[in-house]
């Protein structure tokens, strides 16, 4: 029987090729609809994490805190040591811009350059190495700040917008606020922070205390907290933040809000995934109709051959199984081939995504591949039932006509 099925498949190469292509498209559609839906979800979540923190992220704003060097050091120590929560300190100065002159050395002529065309302005964010545990910070080049006890040279991280303005400079002379003495700083890295129109500079708050003494105290301080466990409630996070604030600043009031609760775009994500699944279902349905049409036409072309087989003793059941098996065998073979090709394509996906993209390339969707093969087999069975039934009903006497 198996040899007869193979011979039946090879009889009409054009028909087999068209049928195989129809099945191939259906299986590929299922695999990549799931993959695209997963990547879309990852892109949306990662893009939100660039600006609002990973899901879930809370913010505790200390509006009137007296942020001395000692208080900032203690705050940094306590936030870093929190168990079960990734925490970072962020000090923003929305009304203060840093002026940067690319590639200049510290000399007497530098102050005159500040008003020239080589000067670029950027908003300043003082933070720490733990910022990368709360926010998504894909690096275009270099690396994010690292925690170390050894003294480090003054360095900054700039976003892609500012890096483009600085035209690849490795060092800058920085001026900020009322401090007119320039500070030579190395650009440690370039980060994709999701800001397309706003130039930003990221500077470690401990280095700000060292090189721009007294400047960090002028900014607005906030704690950004991301629980590692989904079971940790907002009240528990708020209580632990309140304990830290009270121990360092006393009876200091703070505003506690959620910046990313993970639910604001759940509807969009679910809609995207549902839309891709519906598209793949439609493609599979169209594939089944095409396969059914081809199978019926093929059976009609083989009517005389099937009648001869019936005349020499083949039963209705054997004819039914023969016709149905050829379609199912072809479906399984092409489905496995489609999955194999999709595996290779997925391996090359990282080459198509920019290295500083916030997207986490998902692994191969094996569940979708299994579903695709299963759907293709079911499609083949459904498409083969009608022509197999028609072939089984052929009467041997018709061969004499």
From TrEMBL:
Compartments where located: Cell membrane
Domain ABC3 transporter permease C-terminal span(s) in chain numbering: 278-396
UniProt membrane topology term: Multi-pass membrane protein
Protein name in UniProt: ABC transport system permease protein
TM spans (from-to): 21-40, 274-298, 319-346, 366-386
Family (UniProt): Belongs to the ABC-4 integral membrane protein family.
InterPro entries: ABC3_permease_C, MacB_PCD, Macrolide_Exporter_MacB
Main location: membrane
Source superkingdom: Bacteria
């Amino acid at each position: 029987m198996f040899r007869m099925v193979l011979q039946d498949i090879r009889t009409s190469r054009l028909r087999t090729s068209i049928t195989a292509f129809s099945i191939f498209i259906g299986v590929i559609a299922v695999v990549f609809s799931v993959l695209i839906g997963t990547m879309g979800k990852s892109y949306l979540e990662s893009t939100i994490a660039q600006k609002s923190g990973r899901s879930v992220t809370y913010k505790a704003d200390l509006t009137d805190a007296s942020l001395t060097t000692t208080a900032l050091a203690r705050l940094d120590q306590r936030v870093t040591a929190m168990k079960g929560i990734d925490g970072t300190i962020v000090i923003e100065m929305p009304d203060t811009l840093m002026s940067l002159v690319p590639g200049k050395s510290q000399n007497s002529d530098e102050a005159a350059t500040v008003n020239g065309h080589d000067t670029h302005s950027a908003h300043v964010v003082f933070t720490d190495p733990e910022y990368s545990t709360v926010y998504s910070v894909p690096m275009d080049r270099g690396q994010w700040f690292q925690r170390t006890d050894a003294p480090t040279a003054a360095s900054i991280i700039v976003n892609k917008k500012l890096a483009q303005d600085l035209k690849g400079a490795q060092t800058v002379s920085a001026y900020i606020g009322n401090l007119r003495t320039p500070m030579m700083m190395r650009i440690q890295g370039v980060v994709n922070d999701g800001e397309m129109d706003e130039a930003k500079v990221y500077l470690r708050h401990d280095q700000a205390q060292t090189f721009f003494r007294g400047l960090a105290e002028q900014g607005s301080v906030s704690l950004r907290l991301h629980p590692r466990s989904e079971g940790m409630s907002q009240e528990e996070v708020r209580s632990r933040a309140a304990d830290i604030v009270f121990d360092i600043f006393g009876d200091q009031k703070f505003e506690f809000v959620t910046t990313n609760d993970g639910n604001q775009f759940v509807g969009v994500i679910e809609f995207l995934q549902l839309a891709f699944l519906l598209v793949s279902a439609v493609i599979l349905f169209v594939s089944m109709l095409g396969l059914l049409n081809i199978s019926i036409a093929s059976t009609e072309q083989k009517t005389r051959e099937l009648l001869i087989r019936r005349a020499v003793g083949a039963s209705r059941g054997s004819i039914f199984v023969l016709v149905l098996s050829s379609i199912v065998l072809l479906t399984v073979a092409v489905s496995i081939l489609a999955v194999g090709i999709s595996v290779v394509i997925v391996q090359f996906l990282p080459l198509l995504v920019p290295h500083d993209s916030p997207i986490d390339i998902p692994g191969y969707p094996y569940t979708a591949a299994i579903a695709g093969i299963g759907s293709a087999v079911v499609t083949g069975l459904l498409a083969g039932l009608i022509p197999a039934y028609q072939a089984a009903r052929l009467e041997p006497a018709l061969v004499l006509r």
